[in-house]
């Protein structure tokens, strides 16, 4: 692959602010079928008090709010959270029951408000590679803020042979330094979500699969979108971003269509557990 081709598809800026915006504008929408399937199955709507862990830039919260739910979300990325505030709490609009917090579930607790009755963790990277972000502890704390029997939804990758994105994500795993193992992507194992739920003191109570294809307008958008996930951070630290972009483009090439778009079929799995 020529350096010119790499430069053409390399993001013009890789600042944290740009990557957060790329997540909100390119990548986050890829999980919309997952959000819709879960909300439909659990009948989210008026009377739902939702807590989202790893809420990102708030698209899933916005969709739940449109169904009539009261929504709260937390995230560890301040830049994504600021974009969520722009979506959910525009200047001059009443906040209602919406609360957004940086960090853990305790940041959005209301001492006088009702307990949550739905908890979601939609970001599949949260459950990849063990529990690098201490999710089991966060889930246990969140469960303490919920009604007894509240459904807790965990999402992860489906079988790797049914996830075209695995080809790109294997680049991240191969280039990452072994010392960065907690930040590396790895294929999901069959019982990952169940094991995580049990570690958090939750009881598995059903699951489902959803088709979530990754579709991009062009190769540059595909590179920007995938880099925005954070899955390639350890690889970039271990090598350099130009090498990551080069190998990522090569992995994406089989999914480049004649019209210039990139299309990657994927299947995601979700688990419903109970507090």
TrEMBL record:
Keywords recorded for this protein, A-Z: Methyltransferase, Transferase
Gene3D superfamilies referenced in this protein's UniProt entry, alphabetically: Vaccinia Virus protein VP39
InterPro entries: SAM-dependent_MTases_sf
GO terms under biological process: methylation
Single GO molecular function: methyltransferase activity
Descriptive protein name: SAM-dependent methyltransferase
Organism: Streptomyces cinnamoneus
């Amino acid at each position: 692959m020529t350096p010119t081709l790499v430069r053409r598809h390399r993001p013009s800026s890789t600042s944290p602010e740009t990557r957060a915006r790329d997540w909100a504008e390119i990548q986050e929408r890829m999980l919309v079928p997952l959000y819709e399937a879960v909300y439909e199955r659990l009948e989210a709507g008026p009377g739902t008090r939702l807590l989202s862990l790893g809420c990102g830039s708030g698209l899933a919260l916005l969709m739940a709010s449109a169904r009539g739910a009261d929504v709260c979300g937390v995230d560890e990325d301040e830049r994504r959270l600021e974009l969520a505030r722009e979506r959910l709490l525009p200047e001059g609009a009443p906040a209602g029951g919406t609360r957004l917090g940086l960090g853990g579930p305790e940041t959005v607790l209301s001492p006088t408000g009702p307990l949550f009755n739905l908890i979601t963790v939609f970001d599949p990277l949260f459950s990849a590679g063990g529990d690098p972000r201490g999710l089991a502890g966060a889930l246990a704390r969140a469960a303490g803020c919920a009604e007894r029997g509240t459904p807790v939804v965990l999402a992860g990758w489906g079988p790797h042979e049914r996830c075209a994105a695995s080809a790109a994500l294997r680049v991240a795993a191969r280039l990452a330094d072994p010392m960065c193992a907690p930040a590396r992507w790895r294929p999901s194992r069959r019982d990952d979500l169940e094991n995580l739920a049990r570690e958090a003191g939750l009881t598995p109570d059903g699951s489902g699969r959803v088709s979530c294809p990754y579709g991009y307008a062009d190769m540059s958008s595909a590179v920007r979108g995938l880099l925005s996930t954070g899955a390639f951070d350890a690889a970039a630290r271990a090598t350099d971003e130009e090498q990551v972009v080069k190998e990522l483009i090569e992995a994406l090439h089989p999914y480049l269509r004649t019209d210039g778009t990139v299309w990657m079929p994927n299947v995601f799995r979700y688990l419903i557990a109970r507090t």
